[in-house]
């Protein structure tokens, strides 16, 4: 048995392997599941996981992740639309929107959904920070405008970012649950 991680991103698979080391092998699969329109990452990931499970090899459990940046003053925008907003509005212009606000708090959230045909379970990880003017060359996506403890995620080393990562937190919760079940 192995867990099939549905993602186009090999880096995420490597990260998942670190958390599931000694528990279960992780295999990367690409599956173009329907991303439903919803403001709930849980709902999007759970539907995706069920669809990927049904469309994949019988009996092999799947893991689907969905993540986003939720800005308090913007009622959680861009949230589940983070990838689309990054492509259209862009990170710099999102900063300019938030700059007008007194409250610049935001949160990165990842939800992982696991489906094995019998059950669908979701696991959350999040990190709270502040939206700032872009700084740093590392990371990806919204990292340059997300500050945590005085540093943007783009200014951190990979190790520093992983240690506080929303995805890492979701993976570690999932790994603990999975180990308990198997
Ligand atoms: P998958 O193939 O794994 O589904 P994806 O591009 O859909 O990849 P996510 O659901 O993980 O990626 O994230 C959605 C968007 O949120 C992504 O395009 C980024 O803009 C942003 N994002 C997610 N995690 C981030 C992080 O740690 N730092 C900066 N931006 C992040
Ligand atoms: Na996704």
TrEMBL record:
One Gene Ontology cellular component annotation held by this UniProt entry: cytoplasm
A GO BP entry: nucleoside triphosphate catabolic process
Keywords, sorted A to Z: Hydrolase
InterPro entries: ITPase-like_fam, RdgB/HAM1
UniProt GO molecular function: nucleoside triphosphate diphosphatase activity
Pfam families named in the record: Ham1p_like
Taxonomy, superkingdom: Archaea
Assigned protein family: Belongs to the HAM1 NTPase family.
Record-linked NCBIfam families: PRK14821.1, RdgB/HAM1 family non-canonical purine NTP pyrophosphatase
Protein name as annotated: XTP/dITP diphosphatase
Species of provenance: Natrialba swarupiae
């Amino acid at each position: 048995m192995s867990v099939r991680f549905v993602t186009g991103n090999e880096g995420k698979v490597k990260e998942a392997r670190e958390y599931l080391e000694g528990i279960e092998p992780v295999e990367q699969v690409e599956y173009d599941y329907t991303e439903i329109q919803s403001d709930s990452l849980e709902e999007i990931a759970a539907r995706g996981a069920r669809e990927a499970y049904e469309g994949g090899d019988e009996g092999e459990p799947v893991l689907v992740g969905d993540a986003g940046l939720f800005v308090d003053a913007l009622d959680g925008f861009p949230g589940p639309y983070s990838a689309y907003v990054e492509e259209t509005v862009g990170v710099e212009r999102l900063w300019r929107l938030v700059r007008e606000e007194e409250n610049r708090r935001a949160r990165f959230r990842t939800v992982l959904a696991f489906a094995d045909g019998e059950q669908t379970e979701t696991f959350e990880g999040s990190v709270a920070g502040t939206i700032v003017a872009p700084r740093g060359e590392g990371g990806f996506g919204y990292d340059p405008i997300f500050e945590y403890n005085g540093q943007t995620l783009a200014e951190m080393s990979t190790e520093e970012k992983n240690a506080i990562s929303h995805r890492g937190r979701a993976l570690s919760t999932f790994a603990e649950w999975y180990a308990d079940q198997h």
